[in-house]
Amino acid sequence: MHPAFSIIFFTTAAGAGYGLLLLLALLGPAGLLPDSRAFAVVSTGLALGLVAVGLLSSVIHLGHPERAWRAVSQWKSSWLAREGVAALVTFLPAAIFAVSWALLGRTGAVAGASGIATAIGAVVTVACTAMIYASLKPIHQWHNSWVLPNYLLLSAMTGAVLLNALLHLWRAGRPEFDALVLVLIALSGLAKEGYWTFIGTIPAASTPETATGLGRWGRVRFLESPHSEPNYLLKEMGFAIGRKHSVRLRLIARTLGFTLPLLATVLALGLPAAALPASLLAALAVALGIIIERWLFFAEARHTVTLYYGATTV
Fold this sequence. Notes:
- By secondary structure, the protein is mostly helical.
- The protein has two domains: 1-135, no CATH class; 174-314, no CATH class.
- It is built from eleven helices and no strands.
- It has helices spanning 5-27, 37-61, 68-72, 79-103, 109-134, 147-169, 175-201, 208-212, 232-237, 243-270, 275-299.
- Helix 1 (5-27) crosses helix 6, helix 6 runs antiparallel to helix 7 and helix 7 (175-201) packs antiparallel against helix 10 (243-270).
- The protein is globular, with a radius of gyration of 22 Å.
């Protein structure tokens, strides 16, 4: 599939924002974060800002942004609409949480209840985003059981790395949270490797034989192109990335998205004097690495329609 920057930015920025919002909403009211109004304002502002900018990017991606409200109306049958509804609904408890915890500095029942509701809304919204792709049966690289856990884990991981950097920036880093970040990075890395192994080793069910219904007579071979020039379908759904580029970009995504943040967090855990630059490096590396990972998620996906244009597999 053609990797549109607006969607890449949306899924990475909003995912990190929801991951950060999830942690703030659970840890803040419990008194496990710094007792600093400045920290609360900056962290919640960053989380909500990432979510808002990401959602705005997704609206801009639409062919007619002014009709975005119509997409939300189809929540009974569309995961895209469910994502929109979940995002809008989550903003209400998130706003209450932000006001009660960040602005009023309270950790009582209101902050706790709104925090739990915000955390649930964040998880549901990210899950809906993942299901937009996992529900598409014609795309083998998306329609599998690895997509949903990958989206959820990557959201939690990027949010945790951001929160860890903020904690060290306020000189409030804790070994327990460094350890949590390490666990999330490790789990996310393993889930991503599992996804890449799946799409590289498990063949798609669709073939030229099944697509044309001519398999009963033997192997189906491409005779003549349906079109004499490249068309919209090939540009958007038949986007091809060379294997050598895919291997190289996966290596970069592994290094920036998982390996470097893991090593930087270990350094922050073992050498407190270097914790601040190490945590900031981890946050920067994760941001770049996940953008590359998400670009690959789209670029490596191929629609079944390409079988009618000479592709032998999807």
